[in-house]
Amino acid sequence: MTGELPVAGTVEPEAAAASVTSWDDLVVRVQACVACAELAASRTRVVPGQRPPGADVLLVGEAPGALEDETGVPFVGRSGQLLDGLLGEAGLRREQVAVTNVLKCRPPANRKPRRAEVNRCRPWLERQLELVDPAVVVALGGTATEWFFGPGARIAALRERGRSEPLLHHGRRVLVTYHPSAAIRFGPNGAPVAALREDLAEVARIVAEPRAW
Q1: CA distances in angstroms from 172 to 166, 212, 213, listed in the order given
Q2: What digits encode the pLDDT tens for the residues 10-31?
Q3: How far apart are the C-alpha atoms of 185 and 170, rounded to whole Å?
Q4: In the chain, helix, strand, coil percent, each to 5?
Q5: Which of 16, 136, 158, 204 suits 91 as a labelling partner, its CA being 20 to 30 A distant?
Q6: Which among 118, 123, 88, 115 is positioned nearest to 105, based on CA atoms?
C-alpha cells in the first residue's frame, strides 16, 4: 500500500460508515475523519457531498478542488458551472440530484488521488450509495469509473458497453461519462462535452422510467 498512514487512534472509516443511519449522521462522521494524515493536515474543509430529499440521481466525481475545499460544497467551480448548465439542458436541476466525490478531502495541489486514499475513503461512498439508493449513479471521470469497475477501467469502452447492457454496481445502475473538467480542457466543441451532454440526457430518460433492473 502506498500513501500516508492513518492517524493513530482514529476510528477507521469502515467502522464509522457502517454505524451511521442517516445522511446527516454520515456528514458529521465524514467531517471528523482524519484517516488520511496528509489530507487531514492540508484541507480547509471536508466536502461530504449533497443529497436533496428524494434524489433519483447520484453524481460521483473525483475529489474536491480549491473552491470546494474553501466552501465545503461539491462542484462549485468552473466544472460545477458547466455541470449545472448541462444538467439544465437535460431537464435536471442541480437541486434534484445528489452529488459527491470519491475523496471527501482535496488532495494537495489537486494531485490525483492515491490508491490508498481511495481505498480508505471507500466506505463513505459505499454508505452514501445505500442511503441515497438512486435510480442511476453517474461516474464522472476516470477516478470514479475505476472506483466502480476496478483499476484500468476505461470510460470510452464502458460507455460503448453501456449502450447494449446496463452497467451495474451491487445491483445499481451506473452510467459512465467524462468529468466536466475534461470537457473544459477540450473546449465546447470537444468530444468530452458532447459525450457528457448526451449521457446526462440519457440519465434524464432513465429516471423518467420505472426501474427495471
Answers
A1: 9, 11, 8
A2: 568 999 999 999 999 999 999 9
A3: 33
A4: 50, 10, 40
A5: 158
A6: 118
CA atoms of 198 and 91, how far apart (whole Å): 12
In contact, 134 and 168? CB cutoff 8 Å: no
* CA atoms of 9 and 28, how far apart (whole Å): 18
Is 204 exposed, middle or buried (CB count within 10 Å of its CB: 0-12, 13-18, 19+)?
Answer: middle
List the grid coordinates of 152. 484500468
Which residue type, as a one-letter code, is found at position 198? Answer: E
Query: Chain centroid to CA 176: how far?
Result: 11
Residues 128, 1, 66, 143: is their CA dihedral positive or negative?
A: negative
Of 191, 209, 61, give the one whose Cα is nearest residue 139.
61
Between 191-207 and 78-89, two packed helices, what is the crossing angle to 10 degrees?
50
CA distance to 20, 99, 122, per residue, from 106 (Å): 23, 15, 15
What are 67-105's pLDDT values in tens digits? 999 999 999 999 999 999 999 999 999 999 999 999 999
In angstroms, the CA 64 to CA 156 distance is: 24
At which residue does the C-alpha cell 456528514 appear?
27
